[in-house]
Each structure stands twice: as C-alpha cells, then as structure tokens.
Amino acid sequence: MPKKRDKKIDKKHQLSRRSFLKGVGSGAVTAAVIPSSIAAIKAKETISFQETGVEKEVVNLIINGRTYNVEVEAREILADTLRKRLNLTGTKIICGQGACGACTVLVDGIPIYSCITLTMDVNNRDITTIEGLASDGKLHPVQEAFIEKDGMQCGFCTSGQIMSAVALLKNNPNPALEEVKLGMSGNLCRCGAYPKIFESVLAAAEKGRR
Amino acid sequence: MKNFTYINAKSIKDAVESLGKNWNESVVKSGGTDLLGELKGMIISPEKVINLKTIPNLDYIESTQDGGLKIGAVTTITKISESSLIKTKFPVISQAASKVASPQLRNMGTLGGNLCQRPRCWYYRENSILCLKKGGSQCYAFTGENKFHCIFGGGPCFIVHPSDMAASLISCDAEIKIYGRKGERELELNNFYLLPRENVNRENVLNPDEIVVEIIIPPPKNNTKSIYIKQSIRETWDFALCSVAVSMSMSGLKCDDVRIVLGGAAPKPWRSINAENELRGKMITETVAESAAKAAVNNAQTMRDNKYKINLFQNIIKSAILEVIKS
Predict the structure, then answer these.
(1) Interface residue ranges in chain B relative to chain A, Cβ cutoff 8 Å
(2) Out of A110, B20, B127, B206, which could bridge B26 as a Cys pair, Cβ 3.0 to 4.6 Å?
(3) d(Cα B4, Cα A141) in Å, to the nearest integer?
(4) Can you identify the CATH homologous superfamily of domain B224-326?
(5) CATH class entry, domain A56-95+103-130
(6) What is the CATH number of domain A141-209?
(7) For the structural domain made of B61-115+163-217, what CATH number should be given?
(8) What is the ipTM of this complex?
C-alpha cells in the first residue's frame, strides 16, 4: 500500500458524498465573504472529481445468480474478489497474468480471464463461476463428461477448462474436434491431458444432443 | 500492483480531459489484457487509470460510403475475427484477428489496445531491470538473450512490435484517428509507429493526453487478395516469431500493386518496400515469389540468437505470396 500517496489523494480528491455535501454547504456560507464566482468554480471542481474518479468503491456483483455487494480498491482483481472475499475458490489462479486460463469465468456468458480483470469492471455484470454450473444438486453435463471421460490429471486447470467448454458448447453445440481444440486453446494443462479434455468436451456435446 | 484512481470515462472528451500531461500520471485502459500485466508486474504504476470501455459508441464495425470500413477503438478482437464483412472484404485483417493470443484474450482485448500494446521484450517486462526503454542506460537485449528481437530498425533498443493487427491493417493502407486535448488528428497507421531511434521510450506518436478512437480502412483496390501468415512457437496464445501480411491487387496473375508488412521483424510493423518492388508489375511465379522473399531480408541485421528469422521470414513470405494468388 502506498500510504503516503493514498493519504494525499484522499484529502484532495476522495471526498465522500457526505463530505461533498458538507463542502457545498460551507461554500454557500462563505459565498457571502468571497466573490461568488470563485465559490462556484471550487464547487464545480469538487463535483468533477467526485463523479469521475474512485480509489475504492462498493461494487454490485451478480455471481451465479446471487447478488453480492463488496467494497473493493480500484486495483482489485476479480479472481481475488471471488476467492478471498467471497470464498468461491473453485476459480483457480496459476499464472496470474492471463497466460494459462485456470481463472476463466464467464461474464455475460463470455469466457474471460478473471486474473487480469478489474473487479470494478464487472460491476452489475452477470458472472458465472464453476460453482454456478450445477443446479439442484445435479452436475452440469460438461462436468459429468469430464468425470466420465477422465478429462484431467492433477485437476488444477479443470475448472477453467470446464468454463471454456461450457461457453464453447453454448455457441457451437455440435463442434468438430478441430473446433474443440480451437475453442479450448485459451486453457493450458501442464499435465498434458489434452486428448482426454477434448474427448470430454465432445462427450458433453453428445450428451447435449441426446 | 499499486492502487490508482479509476475513472470510467463517459465520453472521448471526458477521457482526454482526465489524462495527465506525462506518462507516469495516467494511462488509458480498454480491454486491459496488456495493461494489467504491466500494472501487476509494476512495470508502470500510474496515479490514474482511465477506462475507455465505458465510452458509448466506440465499439463498432461500419462500412463507409466509399466501400471502406471504420472500426471503433474498443471493438473486441473477437468481434473483428468473426465479422463476415471483414472476412469477405479484408481476409488479412480477419485472419490476423483470429490469430491474436487466445479466445479469452480476444474476448477481452480491443483493436485500439492491440495497436498500442507495449513490447514483449523480457528485459522490458522484468521489473527489476531498468532497460533503455524504461529510462536506463542500455539495451540488455543487444548483448544478452535476443532470440525474439528485431532484425530491422534496431538500435538503440531492439524490441519487435508485437501487434498482429497492426501489420494486417497497414497492408490495407489503414488510417488511425487520434483524439487529444488539441483536437483530432488522423494519420496513416504506418506513420503512427516510431523506431527507437526516433523515441526510445515509446513505440508510437501518441502523446500522454491522446487516445486512439478509430481505425479507417480505405476500400480495397480492384481484385485485391490478401493473407496473413503467423509463425510462433506455440499454435495458440503466442506472439509472432515472424509474421507477414500481404495485400495484392491483381490483373490475372499479374501483380498491379502490393503491400508486404512484416511482424516480429522490427520495433514497428515493418513494410518491406524491397519485397514489394520485386512483385509490382510482374507475373507471380514461384521464382518471383522467391526473389521477393529474398529481397525482403536482404538488408537484415541479425544478432547472436535471432539468425533463424532470416530463413523463417523468407519461407513465410514466399508461401504468403504463392497462397494469396490462389485465394
């Protein structure tokens, strides 16, 4: 934490709604003493900072259909919010730089890397994590297929693989092997279980057809 | 990563007004795929990050009246790779987009961000090393590990420009629209990029208070065919070791005009005028393609670990020329 800088900016720009209203109030009082044009300019400056920039904010996250309100710093990463604050630890972090795919989650149905996504950017967006796939105690067909076809070895990349597979099959319920490989190309498996992963995705597609 | 003030820009003007006068003060963020790497690795620690994704109407692919295209800066790479309009009119752009990084990164990453991404040089990306680009006194790649570094335009820094989109767009004579405090300016994308000898710290002409807002692609000349070939270590996710974008207008098998742009070759997307001159006005045969490929690497300057790029470039340029006439 760069405490020094935070303090400075807090004082200067990070006014809460309450202290801003207070400020406007005192501005109105001092307007009698100083020329009103200056007071007006000051108030305007305060407003523009208040409206545009935040270092910390309460975000509204809709995760697996449930709403969470969490206060996060601007730098907070979605994968950390999920794991550390909301205890949704099914989403894994391996590389932390968008180069492995373990942290894949769906935002409005589209797979993204949560380790390089700012939590503030998914405010009010619909997020699906691995925890949100099963319903009524029954696993998602893709999860079932990964178990049946043994689409994993150590399993650490699996939740990311499954999230990608779910998105892939939603767009293309009947993919050819080449399309599966392409669709899954944003998820690494260091164990090298790829043949079984692809088999699992094809099996899940098959389940969907039945 | 250090914390920062996050600003969701509501308009282009709003974004520009929030920008500081120097690079330490503020940066813009679109998809964030490149920026988050820089922030997390503490390569940069700006005070303000300005989010361009919240600007309405900056995400579009539109035909222009003259038969060209306009693409908004925050349009995702996925959207570009899937656009049937781009696929039919400018295959080279569509192919380049589909070869960018991975599906997830294409879903997040945007065209403006792709064009303005910072270099992948491992000395630049290592936070404990103060290289020339970051204000240090020397380029460590020159005497160090330079397997992925440039063979053209090097010195005093030896990066390669990592953008696939840039090479493909320059082959279509694309233009870039920039908005800043002083207003709007438009320039050829080819002139947007700088060599290290022009500015060692930056890769393009953007000022700290300017943002990219649009890419304009003029209508293709008669009977234009195009192709993008990318060679990387892995088939997915990777940056190009060598790539080539070819756009050629033809009469039968005769080349009327051509642009050949190389990626992974130089600190900016590298237009190979030598190769273009070998093709213009000629019937395309295997011999002509070979001589163009040879001309392309004629004046290359290799370092200890990147000599392989000479052969690799010759091969992909030759294949691209022979493939494009068949397309």
Answers:
(1) 1-9, 14, 18, 32-33, 36-37, 39-41, 47-49, 51, 53, 101-105, 107-108, 235-237
(2) B20
(3) 42
(4) CO dehydrogenase flavoprotein, C-terminal domain (3.30.390.50)
(5) alpha beta
(6) 1.10.150.120
(7) 3.30.465.10
(8) 0.97
